[in-house]
Amino acid sequence: MLSRRLFRSAGFRFGAIYAALLGASAIALAVFVWWTTAGLLDRETQATIYADASDLAARWTEGGLPLLATTIEDRLAQNVDDDAVYLLVDRSMHRIAGNLTTWPSGITEPNTAYELMLRRAGLLSMAYVQRYDLPNGFHLLVGRDVKLRSQLRDLLTDALMWAMLVVMVLATVGALIIRSLMRRTLADISATASAIAAGDFARRVRISGRGDEFDQLAEVLNDMLDRIGRLMDGVRQVSNAIAHDLRTPITRARTRLEDAALHAETTDDLRAAIERAIADLDGIVQVFQALLRIAQIEAGSRRSAFTNMDVVPVLAEVADLYDAVAEDRAVAIQVDASGSVPVFGDRALIQQAIANLVDNAVKFSPPGSTVHLTAVDGDPVTVTVADEGAGIPEVDRHKATDRFFRGETARHTPGAGLGLSLVLAVAQLHGGRLLLEDNQPGLRASLILPHPSGSSPNQPQSPAEDGRPIVP
Questions:
Q1: pTM metric for this prediction
Q2: Alpha-carbon distance 254 to 60, whole Å?
Q3: Distance of CA 54 to the CA centre of its chain
Q4: Under CATH, to which class is 303-449 assigned?
């Protein structure tokens, strides 16, 4: 069982790969060194023998047997290294010239290299020889004593073998170190994940501070855990807000129906109570529909409806839609946009986002004030709705887009606190952002969207890490 876990371990596999690569590199290096040294010596010996034999063949051609025998004796006399091997014999294999007394046994094939032990001057040594057949039955043996080269080659081979053994030991030690490092790093990540699974959401992956890939992974995981923690806090807040905000209309509807069932004296009284309860329940349904719409927008399910559009006519349509409501509250709506302001997005969603901003602006504007709607072309495109009302205090602007959030100034006004949440969701769907600023007096809400020639909305960018609007 232990061995099976060991082989399944990622640290063991990475360590084994490291050891295998290091071993393969050492073997390749050893083969190259051996080939360029011992192999080079063998090739030089062969080349020397071939050149010597070619020169002796030329002497045979020039002067026949006497000149060839004289040349062999001269070369033996001039051979300072005493490594030359020559033997010239007749058809009966009797010696004519050379430093060998007899023809070695087994040397039967001409132009073939042989490596064998030879006795020269009463001593055995390793020699590398080749046989050459001459006309009229004469035979020539040319070679070199390679005892020293053989010793050097053996010494080099032993050194390389020991070096490879040392490399394999170091590779094994390195593999164990890599496995240990990976186990410690992954163990911390695993422990963090287990703690979070057990309910400890404050646990985070330890960062060593070296800035390596493991630290980068830890930072990404910690950012993800922070994001998950914020989302879970948001879910809890939304759940609490839903329970708090919907309890009142549900209780009110139930009380009215119960009161009508107990005290209604006429059909008209009962019908009126039912209609009021239906109106309360319709408000609850509208809240859930708004929540579902925000969730759909945040999930990106509406990107298929993106197209090139002009935002200026949308401003005019929203202004016409709220003109009657604004007139009843003695508030003017002014559109400060002309020409064409292109945007790539979902026309219906952008229109709804602007409508939510205008609805809030009209709702909180004092009589006699003006709501300004502007659209500025550029990269990015900026659509602004500015009012002259009480505005949103700076301390509350980061929470203004929280679902069901109601500031002190909006506590007693109609609404569920979902308008700015939907505007932020639409902005993020289009890769834009929502900017809330002080209009002195009032609030200036800017919907900032990418230009069609700029960044693609298929890659939405959150304006802030916690998903809230940017507040200057």
A1: 0.45
A2: 129
A3: 65
A4: alpha beta
Q: What is the greatest pairwise CA distance in the chain?
A: 153
Domain ranges of the chain: 2-155, 213-296, 303-449
Judge whether 151 and 125 are in contact, CB under 8 Å.
Answer: no
Tokens for 467, please give them. 């998903």
- Per CATH, the number for 2-155 is 3.30.450.20
Ramachandran bin of 434, using left for φ above 0, alpha for ψ from -120 to 50, beta for the remaining angles: beta
Strand partners, 259: none
> How high is the pLDDT of residue 463?
39
- Residue 101's CB is within 10 A of a number of other CB atoms, namely 9
Residues 6+ apart with CB under 8 A from 59: 67, 68, 71
Question: Could you tell me if 302 and 346 are in contact, meaning their C-beta atoms sit under 8 angstroms apart?
Answer: yes
Tokens of 232: 């879970």
349-376 residue pLDDT tens: 888 888 888 888 888 888 989 889 998 8
Kindly provide the b/e burial profile for residues 123-157, where b requires at least 16 CB atoms within 10 angstroms of the residue's own CB.
eebbbbbbbbebeeebbbbbbbbbbebbeebeebe
Q: Which residue has the tokens 């790093």?
A: 185
Q: How far is CA 197 from CA 194, 239, 285, 382, 467, in A?
A: 5, 22, 35, 43, 24
In whole angstroms, what is the distance from residue 390 CA to residue 136 CA? 126
Distance of CA 159 to the CA centre of its chain: 43
Q: Which two tokens stand for residue 200?
A: 């400890």
At 412-437, the pLDDT tens digits run 455 556 767 778 888 888 788 888 88
pLDDT (tens digit, 9 = 90+) per residue, 120-133?
Answer: 766 777 888 889 88
Distance CA 190, CA 201 (A): 14
Q: Specify the residue for token string 């969207």.
A: 449
User: Which residue in the block uniquely carries the two structure tokens 């020539």?
Assistant: 140
DSSP character at residue 470:
B
Residues in the chain: 472
Among residues 400, 405, 407, which one has the least CA distance to residue 417? 405
Which amino acid, 368? G
CA 98 to chain CA centroid, Å, is 74
Mean pLDDT confidence for 28-54:
78
